[in-house]
UniProtKB/TrEMBL annotation:
<dbReference type="InterPro" id="IPR008579">
    <property type="entry name" value="UGlyAH_Cupin_dom"/>
</dbReference>
<feature type="domain" description="(S)-ureidoglycine aminohydrolase cupin">
    <location>
        <begin position="39"/>
        <end position="105"/>
    </location>
</feature>
<protein>
    <recommendedName>
        <fullName>(S)-ureidoglycine aminohydrolase cupin domain-containing protein</fullName>
    </recommendedName>
</protein>
<dbReference type="InterPro" id="IPR011051">
    <property type="entry name" value="RmlC_Cupin_sf"/>
</dbReference>
<dbReference type="Pfam" id="PF05899">
    <property type="entry name" value="Cupin_3"/>
</dbReference>
<dbReference type="InterPro" id="IPR014710">
    <property type="entry name" value="RmlC-like_jellyroll"/>
</dbReference>
């Protein structure tokens, strides 16, 4: 039996920790959709603004919006619908969200 996962449903968001906010007043949140063999699949969303983060092991696909992620080593990745990215646990990143970013993640 198949179960359709609703990636369009609302994601509860809250303001980010002020210690991580570099610019603006971004909010973010996530909603788990399923667990498969101990791995979580979910939807994450962040509103415009700039914030830092320390990543977990994750692969994600951008569903909508646009952003730029800069890694501690200086590498920059521009994100748009269809972008696929692999994050590694412990990586320090800075997220500049230009248009509310929505992604589906596997972590």
């Amino acid at each position: 039996m198949f179960r359709v996962l609703d990636v369009e449903a609302a994601v509860p968001t809250a303001p980010l920790d002020p210690a991580t906010v570099v610019d603006g007043s971004p909010s973010a949140g996530s909603r788990a959709l399923a667990a498969v063999a101990g791995v979580e699949v979910g939807v994450w969303e962040m509103s415009p603004g700039t914030a830092t983060d320390v990543e977990v092991d994750e692969v994600f696909v951008v569903l909508s919006g646009s952003a730029t992620v800069t890694f501690e080593d200086g590498e920059r990745v521009d994100l748009a619908a269809g972008s696929v990215v692999r994050l590694r646990a412990g990586e320090h990143t800075t997220w500049v969200v230009h248009e509310t970013l929505r992604k589906i993640y596997v972590a």
